[in-house]
Write a structure and sequence with these properties.
The chain has helices at 2-36, 45-56, 72-78, 91-96, 110-117, 134-145, 163-168, 170-173, 205-218, 228-233, 246-251, 269-272, 289-300, 317-322, 324-327, and strands at 69-70, 83-87, 103-104, 125-129, 151-154, 225-226, 239-242, 258-259, 281-284, 305-308. By secondary structure, it is α/β, with parallel strands linked by helices. α6 (134-145) crosses α13 (289-300). The termini are far apart. The model is unreliable at 1-38 (pLDDT under 50).
């Protein structure tokens, strides 16, 4: 009998502990679920209106024509046809030599020139040209976003036109100076933080976009580019966005940089909301052209964004040359330089 009572006592204890254990486990699971729930990110009304307007008007940054680049050889073949070349370099650089028929405009003059100086849609193509192709990429993106769908940026800038400019530009700027400092660590994105507030006071997406467009051109092009020396001297100072393919990113990137997909990032609040807007943002890719386009879009939405001059070419050039075939890198070489005529 005692043995039966003892067995019953053990059975009751087992049930009590089993119930307590299950209850504790359920509570733990519930806590885990609660921890994973995040508050919805607040996006300002003006930001949402601008996003909606851009998407309804073609969603350029996620279209097949983004980024809108054109080779120097195509530009040269098109001279004399119904095209317009807009040279964004300084008046001194322009006077010393430019593409035949090109007009010289200051960066700040571009909006008024497109609005009142020409009838943009009378041209088959309008080609923006700068020293390295990055500032013209930035300008081209803004113009495309404002509906000028026939605008292109000349790849590599004047460096692709002839050797004189290449020696002063890309061939001088490429460097393997920091390739020993790249890392392979996959850096995670921050939590969703929200997006900058656009305080134009306007009521429609098109009005907000036009106001931001004018403001960005008024601010000029002086701080669009940032050098590898500046970034590598203190990478922690910046939020660094890498726009390369996954395999390229994993093979080596700037310390601390976070990879965002070249497509499917711009225009998506759940992607852009993870980009800090209280910190300077550096965007880079292989050549600096794609990042020039991306930088324009981020700036349109209020981010303090900059594009890395020469992209990967500016800090890991030798590595790119060695792995050109394996990873499809685009290192700038003398093969990218033409011998086209300039006029004074």
């Amino acid at each position: 009998m005692k043995k039966q009572y003892f067995s019953l006592f053990i059975f009751i204890l087992f049930c009590v502990f089993s119930f307590t254990g299950c209850k504790g486990k359920k509570t733990e699971n519930k806590q885990e679920v609660v921890q994973k729930v995040t508050k919805p990110v607040a996006i300002g009304n003006e930001t949402l209106l601008l996003l909606k307007d851009l998407k309804e008007n073609g969603d350029y940054v996620n279209s097949k024509v983004f980024p809108s680049l054109i080779k120097a050889s195509i530009v040269n073949e098109s001279l004399g046809n119904n095209i317009l070349v807009v040279d964004l370099r300084s008046s001194k650089q322009y006077s010393e030599g430019h593409i035949k028929g090109a007009v010289n405009k200051k960066f700040e003059e571009v909006p008024s020139y497109f609005e009142t100086g020409i009838k943009p849609f009378e041209y088959d193509k309008i080609i923006m040209v700068s020293e390295d192709g990055q500032v013209s990429s930035y300008a081209t993106c803004l113009l495309r976003l404002m509906g000028y769908g026939n605008v292109y940026s000349m790849r590599w800038g004047m460096s692709a036109w002839n050797n004189k400019y290449a020696q002063e530009g890309w061939l001088k700027g490429v460097s393997g100076k920091y390739e020993s400092k790249v890392e392979n660590t996959v850096n995670e994105r921050p939590s969703l933080l929200g997006m900058p507030e656009l305080k134009t006071g306007l009521l429609t997406g098109s009005e907000i976009g036009a106001a931001r467009f004018r403001k960005l051109f008024e601010e000029g092009a002086a701080d669009i580019l940032i050098t590898a020396d500046e970034v590598f001297s203190n990478p922690q100072k910046y939020f660094i966005i890498n726009l390369d393919r996954k395999d390229k990113y994993e093979d080596g990137h700037i310390p601390g940089s976070v990879r965002y997909k070249p497509e499917g990032t711009l225009g998506y609040t759940d992607e852009m909301a993870s980009i800090p807007f209280d910190k300077s943002v550096v965007v880079y890719c292989g050549t600096g052209h794609n990042s020039g386009f991306a930088t324009a879009y981020l700036r349109l939405f209020g981010y303090d964004a900059h594009t890395l001059k020469y992209g990967n070419n500016g800090f890991m050039y030798d590595k790119m040359v060695k792995q050109r075939t394996a990873l499809s890198w685009l290192p700038f070489t003398s093969a990218d330089v033409n011998n086209f005529e300039v006029v004074k």
